[in-house]
């Protein structure tokens, strides 16, 4: 069994994963903007108003909405710091808690996938229904 996460944003991705032999899927970014998620409201608004094209690659496994911390980690990674060392530095800086849960945008990263553009469309549709 292959274990992989990321990039599942809708039912098409779920079906594709199962067609390729997956026994389960992990959906992350899609649910961050939900009411049930403990992420900061500031974080949720940043996700809704951001674009996938603007994301910064901060390590080999993480992308972030642009902010001061993400720019610093991107520069480290781009300048040759090994990904595991950048991830360690992110962890020492509070990991995802600082940006995602506490909403301190310039101190932590907001790790999301490239399909965050879909979150804005969903949020607008939800508002129109209410």
Please name the defining characteristics of this protein.
mainly alpha; 2 strands; 7 helices
Summarize the structure.
With 130 residues, this protein is mostly helical.
Write the layout of secondary structure elements.
Blueprint: H1 11-19, H2 29-32, H3 41-49, E1 56-59, E2 62-64, H4 68-78, H5 83-92, H6 95-101, H7 117-129
Antiparallel strand pairs: 1-2
**Major sheet, described briefly?**
2 strands, antiparallel
Which structural category fits the helices and strands?
A: mainly alpha
Number of helices: 7
Cα radius of gyration in angstroms: 15 Å
Low-pLDDT segments, ≥5 res: none
Task: Count every beta strand, where a strand is a DSSP E run of 2 or more residues.
Answer: 2
Order of helices and strands: HHHEEHHHH
Helix content: 40-55%
Distance between the termini: 42 Å
Strand order of the largest sheet: 1-2
Overall pLDDT confidence: 85
The portion of residues forming beta strands comes to: 5-15%
Q: What global shape is seen?
A: globular
Report on the architecture of this protein.
It is a single chain. This protein is mostly helical. Helix content is 48%, strand content 5%. The protein is built from 7 helices and 2 strands; from the N terminus they run H-H-H-E-E-H-H-H-H. A two-stranded antiparallel ribbon has the order 1-2. A hairpin with a 2-residue loop joins strand 1 and strand 2. The longest helix is centred in the last third of the chain and has 13 residues, at 117-129. The radius of gyration is 15 Å and the shape is globular. The chain starts with 10 loop residues before the first helix and ends with a helix.
């Amino acid at each position: 069994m292959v274990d992989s996460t990321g990039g599942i944003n809708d039912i098409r991705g779920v079906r594709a994963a199962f067609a390729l032999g997956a026994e389960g899927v992990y959906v992350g970014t899609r649910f961050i903007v939900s009411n049930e998620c403990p992420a900061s409201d500031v974080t949720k608004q940043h996700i809704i108003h951001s674009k996938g094209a603007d994301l910064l690659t901060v390590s080999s496994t993480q992308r972030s909405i642009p902010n001061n911390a993400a720019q610093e980690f991107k520069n480290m990674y781009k300048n040759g710091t090994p990904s595991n060392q950048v991830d360690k530095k992110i962890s020492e800086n509070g990991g995802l808690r600082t940006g995602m849960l506490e909403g301190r945008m310039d101190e932590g990263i907001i790790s999301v996938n490239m399909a965050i553009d879909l979150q804005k469309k969903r949020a607008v549709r939800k508002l129109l229904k209410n």
